[in-house]
């Protein structure tokens, strides 16, 4: 993801369309590096413009949401109110494809004279700022003061002249011409995509890869190929034509905001269509402001849930590592008990043939009547053959008892590992804080977390995912083991269909049939959901078992979410669920 120059161009176009001629009715500063303008538009409505100079997440977009402001407005906010309250927005511009927006504002001063001021929003990562200028490009004030001690390139202080620092000699792609492009791209030996964002303003590495994809070129190839032969020259021409076409689209203000989803999470966004991603993972958004608000809200939700689940993840991971070590040790010990039958046979053969063994022998040979082969039996020369036989029978008995105990223990530890891995998958699925509540309760019930204070009933508000198939059938997906049990054994009826990723942790998926026959497409969509909400969601193909609910059984005393079944169908399918409708509840 990149808040690049083309994204800024899309914002500038949208702000022009919505805010030009509007008057600023309210100015608030919710955060130390953030402004919120309420603007009365020429159409009679109001729009809110959010500007953030946050070092980690600089943004500008239109929003419908209010944000609480401090009781006492900061000094920068009071200054803007003094100068810009009721001011009219006369223009919104972007210099080239720089990550900078200029708000041109017309207002009356104390004497009633018409004045023109500019509010500069610089969206440059840790160098982001919001700067207020007078008619002569003199800085009146800024939301962040940058002194000469902080930056040797430019001071941002009241009374200083404003300028854009040219720290990199990049060209403006909006003034592109073939001759300059060819000389620039053949000047060195860089990967093609890197040369694009290194030599031209406003082009992010992500967008540079998209340009290469549209030109049908491998972005990792060297620009040295452009001068190698006629084929290289043709490749360069194709790259120029593609780049030029994209810039014409930007100049014409033709944008198509899109969000890219990977495994249900927002991964990338752009103001232009992205051909390097398959269509199923792309979601077109109505406006660039709506895209930014939705993208960062969803991204924030996933990040916040990950942060809130850190303690639960640590508990589960620690317990899982401990049980895996225990299981590996038990398997090694169990393997050692495999030689118990050898000791039993030694004892039996010594009882049968021991009378002929000379005293003080260190070994003897005997016919193994089980296989018909001669075997060599090691002996303790200080013991009689009968005593050696008893020694071997004792070893056999000890190993037999160990094998019986370990067989039961390894089964219990393996069940515990499977249970913990299923909880890990539930944590990956969780989208909201209430989804974590049931998982925490399960960990408490399993003895991994100690409940503090008196036992009290916990209110459960988390609900399973609810999808609607393309053929109109309702599909439900459990978010955790408790929900899996409830869906399968309380909610579903015997004729409903049950889906689950084969042999791995994952959600129970129920398709409500209402007595109808399921079409093939619904079977496939339910299987996709089972694959997506499983440990194998990132694999190209996942094997999914499916059968009618009446054939799914839960053994007595088994862990939450654990079931058995003996007759089922299977299919291998991908985990792409982007085309399945999620019903918000």
Walk me through what this model shows.
- The protein has helices spanning 5-19, 75-84, 178-185, 192-199, 205-214, 230-251, 288-308, 310-336, 340-353, 385-429, 433-445, 481-491, 520-532; strands spanning 23-28, 34-40, 46-52, 59-63, 88-93, 100-108, 114-122, 129-133, 139-142, 258-262, 265-270, 282-284, 363-368, 373-378, 465-468, 474-477, 497-501, 509-511, 542-548, 569-573, 581-582.
- The protein is an alpha+beta fold.
- Helix 9 runs antiparallel to helix 10 (385-429).
- A hairpin with a 2-residue loop joins strand 10 (258-262) and strand 11 (265-270).
Keywords:
single chain; 585 residues; seven-stranded antiparallel sheet; five-stranded antiparallel sheet; 37% helix; elongated
The main sheet comes to:
7 strands, antiparallel
Strand content: 15-25%
The helix-and-strand class reads alpha+beta
Biggest β-sheet: strands ordered side by side in the sheet: 20-19-17-18-16-15-21
Q: Report the end-to-end length measured between terminal Cα atoms.
A: 30 Å
Mean of all residue-level pLDDT scores? 89
Oligomer: single chain
Fold blueprint:
Elements: H1 5-19, E1 23-28, E2 34-40, E3 46-52, E4 59-63, H2 75-84, E5 88-93, E6 100-108, E7 114-122, E8 129-133, E9 139-142, H3 178-185, H4 192-199, H5 205-214, H6 230-251, E10 258-262, E11 265-270, E12 282-284, H7 288-308, H8 310-336, H9 340-353, E13 363-368, E14 373-378, H10 385-429, H11 433-445, E15 465-468, E16 474-477, H12 481-491, E17 497-501, E18 509-511, H13 520-532, E19 542-548, E20 569-573, E21 581-582
Antiparallel strand pairs: 1-2, 2-3, 3-4, 5-6, 6-7, 7-8, 8-9, 10-11, 10-12, 13-14, 15-16, 15-21, 16-18, 17-18, 17-19, 19-20
């Amino acid at each position: 993801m990149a808040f690049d120059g083309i994204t800024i161009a899309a914002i500038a176009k949208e702000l022009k369309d919505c805010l030009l001629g509007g008057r600023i009715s309210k100015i608030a500063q919710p955060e130390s590096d953030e402004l919120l303008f309420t603007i009365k538009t020429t159409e009679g409505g109001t729009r809110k413009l959010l500007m953030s100079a946050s070092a980690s997440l600089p943004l500008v977009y239109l929003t419908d949401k209010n944000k609480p402001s401090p009781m006492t407005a900061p000094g920068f906010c009071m200054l803007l109110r003094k100068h810009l309250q009721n001011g009219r927005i006369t223009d919104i511009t972007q210099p080239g494809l720089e990550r900078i927006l200029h708000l041109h504002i017309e207002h009356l001063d104390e004497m009633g004279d018409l004045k023109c001021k500019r509010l500069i929003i610089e969206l440059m990562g840790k160098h982001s700022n919001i700067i207020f200028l007078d008619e002569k490009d003199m800085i009146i004030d800024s939301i962040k003061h940058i002194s000469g001690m902080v930056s040797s390139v430019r001071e941002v202080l009241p009374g200083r002249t404003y300028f854009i620092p040219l720290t990199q000699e990049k060209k403006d792609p909006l003034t592109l011409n073939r001759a300059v492009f060819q000389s620039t791209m053949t000047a060195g030996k860089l990967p093609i995509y890197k040369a694009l964002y290194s030599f031209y303003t406003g082009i992010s590495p992500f967008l540079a890869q998209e340009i290469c994809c549209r030109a049908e070129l491998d972005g990792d190839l060297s620009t040295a190929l452009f001068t190698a032969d006629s084929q290289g020259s043709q490749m360069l021409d194709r790259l120029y034509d593609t780049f030029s076409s994209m810039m014409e689209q930007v100049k014409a203000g033709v944008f198509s905001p899109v969000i890219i989803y990977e495994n249900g999470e927002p991964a990338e966004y752009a103001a232009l269509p992205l051909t390097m991603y398959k269509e199923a993972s792309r979601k077109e958004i109505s406006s660039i402001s709506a895209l930014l608000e939705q993208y960062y809200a969803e991204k924030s939700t996933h990040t916040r849930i990950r942060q809130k689940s850190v303690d639960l993840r640590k508990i589960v991971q620690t317990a899982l590592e401990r049980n895996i070590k225990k299981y590996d040790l038990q398997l090694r010990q169990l393997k050692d008990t495999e030689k118990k039958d050898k000791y039993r046979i030694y004892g039996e053969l010594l009882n049968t043939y021991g009378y002929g063994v000379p005293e003080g022998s260190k070994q003897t040979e005997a016919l193994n009547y089980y296989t018909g082969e001669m075997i060599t039996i090691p002996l303790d020369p200080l013991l009689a053959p009968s005593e050696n036989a008893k020694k071997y029978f004792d070893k056999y008995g000890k190993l037999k008892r160990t094998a019986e105990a370990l067989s039961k223990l390894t089964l219990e530890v393996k069940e515990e590992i499977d249970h913990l891995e299923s909880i890990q998958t539930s944590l990956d699925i969780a989208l909201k804080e209430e989804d974590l509540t049931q998982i925490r309760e399960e960990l408490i019930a399993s003895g991994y977390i100690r409940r503090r204070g008196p036992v009290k009933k916990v209110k459960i508000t988390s609900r399973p995912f609810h999808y609607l198939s393309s053929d109109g059938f309702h599909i439900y997906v459990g978010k955790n083991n408790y929900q899996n049990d409830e869906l399968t054994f309380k909610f579903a009826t015997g004729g409903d269909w049950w889906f689950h990723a084969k042999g791995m942790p994952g959600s129970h998926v129920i398709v409500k049939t209402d007595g109808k026959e399921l079409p093939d497409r619904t079977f496939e969509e339910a299987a996709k959901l089972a694959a997506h909400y499983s440990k194998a969601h990132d694999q190209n193909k996942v094997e999914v078992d499916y059968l009618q609910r009446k054939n799914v059984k839960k053994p007595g005393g088994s862990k939450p979410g654990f079931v058995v079944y003996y007759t089922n169908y299977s299919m291998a399918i991908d985990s792409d669920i982007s085309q399945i409708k999620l019903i918000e509840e």
